Amino acid sequence: MSSSYRRKLSRADVGTGSMLIDKRAWRLFPSPMEEFTVLVAGQEFRTRIVAEDCNCVPPPHQHYHLEAGHFRHLLDFSPGRTVLVQRDSAGCYRLETADAV
Fold first, then answer.
1. Which of 32, 38, 74, 89 is the most buried (most CB within 10 A)?
2. Over its length of 101 residues, how does the chain's per-residue pLDDT go in tens digits?
3. Is 30 helix (H, G, I), strand (E, B) or coil?
4. CA gap 59, 68 in Å, rounded
């Protein structure tokens, strides 16, 4: 399993102050509603993953979002920008704006 996740921010991400987590990356993060710490621009913040029930396509399923509203001002949190989330071996999460690869 990869220990990093990249997300190109959508208008929806920016509008809600959260970041969609692709299903392939769910295992990188704690379970929904479990608080954890992220490091952004040298500052620590508590956040969580929120699971949203959805029927956008059958069958009913969930979308996972990382709540980022309380630290997005420290990132270039705008549509089209890529945010990199890295988890180290100690389970610490670091977020930064990254150029798409």
1. 38
2. 469 999 999 999 999 999 999 999 999 999 999 999 999 999 999 999 999 998 888 999 999 999 999 999 999 999 999 999 999 888 899 999 987 44
3. coil
4. 28
In what order do the strands lie in the sheet containing 18-21? 18-21, 61-67, 49-54
Answer whether 29's CB lies under 8 Å from 80's CB. no
Domains of the chain plus CATH, in order, are: 4-98 (2.40.330.10)
Residue type, 6: R
Q: DSSP 3-state helix, strand, coil percentages of the chain (rounded to 5)? A: 15, 45, 40
- Backbone conformation region of residue 21, classed left if phi is above 0, alpha if psi is from -120 to 50, else beta: beta
Q: Give per-residue pLDDT as tens, 42-68.
A: 999 999 999 999 888 899 999 999 999
Continuous H helices in 5-68: 11-16
